[in-house]
Amino acid sequence: MNMDRIYQKAMEEHREINVQIRRLKDKIRCGQGQPSNQEELRDLVSELRSHLKEHFKIEEEGGFMTPVLEERPQAESVVLHLKKEHEEILDQCDDIIQTLTSGSTSPEKLEGVCETIKNLIQQLGSHEKQEDDLIQTVFVDEIGTKD
Fold first, then answer.
1. Measuring CA to CA, how many Å separate 128 from each of 14, 107, 131, 140, 143?
2. CA distance 20 to 77
3. H helix intervals, 28-106
4. What letter does residue 141 receive in the DSSP assignment?
5. pLDDT tens, residue by residue, 17-38
6. Which of 20, 21, 84, 111 shows a CA-CA span of 20 to 30 A to 125?
7. What is the pLDDT of residue 147?
8. To the nearest 5 percent, what fractions of the chain are helix, strand and coil?
9. Residue ranges of the chain whose pLDDT lies below 50
10. What is the value of pTM for the model shown?
């Protein structure tokens, strides 16, 4: 796969994740005087987790990470950090899903889950931006200027 295609595919995947995040944000009504639907939140987080698991696997096993390291070996610490965050993000999704699956949740507990989801969304946004920046730097800026 050529560098331009890898870059385009990564950006396409990140746009899809952003669509799923927007759907999740739209359903978080905690703190706004309306209860969020526990089952709907669980299903949306489960969908996001499934997509992220596949997305992270692709990134790690043939997506952008290998070509980044081939082109820029000094980026290894950044790539390792991003891989570690993949595990952390999936673990957070699992924790949220478990909480939302364990029977009826009190309004206070649901409020806490909503805050956890908001934090997850924030971390995921930061993570995706780091990936986008790395891809941009390696595939567009560096390779683009080598012509």
1. 7, 31, 5, 17, 21
2. 29
3. 38-60, 65-71, 76-101
4. I
5. 889 998 888 888 655 555 568 8
6. 111
7. 45
8. 85, 0, 15
9. 145-147
10. 0.84
